[in-house]
Specification:
elongated; 228 residues; mainly alpha
């Protein structure tokens, strides 16, 4: 019992943060949260429906063998995870890029600083509220991901790894928005900086993967050229 006390105190302190309660109540009472959630699931469902139709047409021509079923299951699962990551990358900074700068624009930031709430609690409250909402989006997409189990090729381990990857990605995007919102006085520059950084990161990753593929292809093709 004594060992669990620090953990309980930390969790209770997180739940007692008034910023988290205010942000979550304000977000979930409006229509925007449910519109974003419905659009998020709708886009994933439409994309998976189109992909499943293409795979079904391909299977009718080449036969629905177990190997093709496993390949189709992996393709559907990877597509859902990739689409989730792209949507979270689009939604996450939008939730946090105006967290601090909007308080300055409404001229309420000084009032927050005069309260007993510390700067750390303020930032963690804004970050926690946005992360909880993104975590809700990740959980609601799990039934769509589980469709891959009907085809095979995907196990519980892959789903756990992808879920952890999505959670870490959501936390990173939320933190990125908070970072730019904390020292920029306007919400628009903070939002543009957040999305610009994400875009540059994606381009950088794509370039690195392309270079790795090119070097690997050159390395494996060079012995054949030497023999010729």
């Amino acid at each position: 019992e004594h060992k669990d006390t620090p953990r309980r105190n930390l969790f209770q302190r997180f739940l007692d943060n008034p910023v988290i309660l205010k942000e979550l109540r304000g977000r979930m009472r409006g229509r925007q949260a449910f519109i974003v959630l419905t659009t998020y699931l709708g886009l994933i469902a439409i994309f998976i429906g189109v992909l499943y139709s293409v795979l079904a047409e391909t299977s009718s021509s080449m036969g629905w063998d177990p190997t093709f079923r496993q390949t189709a299951g992996k393709a559907i699962f990877a597509s859902v995870v990739l689409l989730e990551m792209l949507l979270i990358g689009f939604i996450g900074p939008g939730l946090t890029s105006g967290a601090i700068s909007s308080e300055r624009e409404r001229q309420t930031f000084d009032l927050l600083r005069t309260t007993l709430l510390s700067a750390r609690s303020l930032v963690l409250g804004k970050l926690g509220a946005a992360f909880i909402y993104l975590f809700l989006l990740i959980l609601t997409a799990l039934p769509i991901e589980s469709l891959a189990f009907l085809l095979g090729g995907v196990g519980i381990g892959e789903m756990l790894i992808s879920s952890v990857m999505l959670v870490v990605t959501a936390l990173f995007f939320c933190t990125l928005g908070i970072f730019f919102s904390s020292f920029m006085r306007r919400t628009l520059p903070a939002t543009l900086s957040s999305y610009g950084t994400i875009l540059l990161s994606i381009v950088f990753i794509v370039i690195i993967l392309f270079l790795m593929t090119y070097v690997q292809a050159t390395f494996y093709s060079s012995p054949n050229d030497v023999r010729e």
